[in-house]
Amino acid sequence: MILIDGKKLAAELREELKQEVSELKTKYNKVPGLTVILIGDMAPSQIYVRNKEKSANEVGLKSEVIKYPDTVEEKTILDKIEELNNNDSISGILVQLPLPKHIDKQKVIETITPSKDVDGFHPMNVGNLSSGYESSVPCTPLGCYLMIKKIEPNLSGKKAVVVGRSNLNGKPMTQLLLKENCTVTITHSRTKDLKAECLEADIIVAAVGIPELVKGDWVKKDAIVIDVGINKTENGLVGDVAFDEVSKVAKALTPVPGGVGPMTIACLLKNTIDCFKRSQK
Ligand code: GUN
């Protein structure tokens, strides 16, 4: 079984991106800039944002985190986004989710200009991705996609099962696999026989947030299994895949932690650089 080392792959990707930033600096005499907006003091968000900033600095991007208390008014955030939209030195804008209840998430997402939407959440980017046009692609599914391609460069005709239909993961993951000519099944909480669906798959991407849902006897021999879940349980941090069981049948599997997580952050940096490059065209 191949243990897909997300940490190592992310480090390799960051090294490539660092080189690219250095070349862009020579060519344009400036570097891509990423601004992250963080609202409130939720611990997981604080940790994610700290990691994003650290990685951005490591590859030579200009990065800034703007923090607000969770009582901040929606208008303050929308005005700040408008200001960043109009600032030429900012290539990418990310508003860390989740947001406090009084702030309309969709309004925030739609205020970010699509060309700086490093999350790929703006309806314009969602539409472009599903139409097969150039777009920002959400970081987590992009990271999953790159890991799958490392294991199996030719995905044409493969059967993929995506477990979970979220806008963050399941739906964009499906689009990426479709572009590679996979036959994709999207499953979710109302799917009648999830085990039977998974048993058909050459590739499984589990992104539902249910601890160890995907069992060893749900997985076909030599399938590639990507675990997007991060669930806190009494037994510590576990994914959506029963790791020990599945590792006995799968061809390749991502661990939790150290799988999808580091690649997600590296892909945010990639998206920031890609937004910068498109803006220079
Ligand atoms: N919170 C958890 N994951 C994400 C993500 O990919 N983007 C943003 N903006 N917030 C998140």
CATH C-level class of the largest domain is Alpha Beta
Q: Which overall shape is indicated by the principal axes computed on the Cα atoms?
A: globular
**Average pLDDT taken over every residue:** 98
Largest sheet: 6 strands, parallel
Order of helices and strands: EHEHEHEHHHEHEHEEEEHEH
Q: How do the strands of the widest beta sheet line up side by side? A: 1-11-8-7-5-6
Strand content: 15-25%
Report the C-alpha radius of gyration, rounded: 19 Å
Whole-number count of domains = 2
Name of the CATH superfamily of the largest domain: NAD(P)-binding Rossmann-like Domain
**Which fold does the CATH topology of the largest domain refer to?**
Rossmann fold
Total helical segments: 10
Unreliable residue runs: none
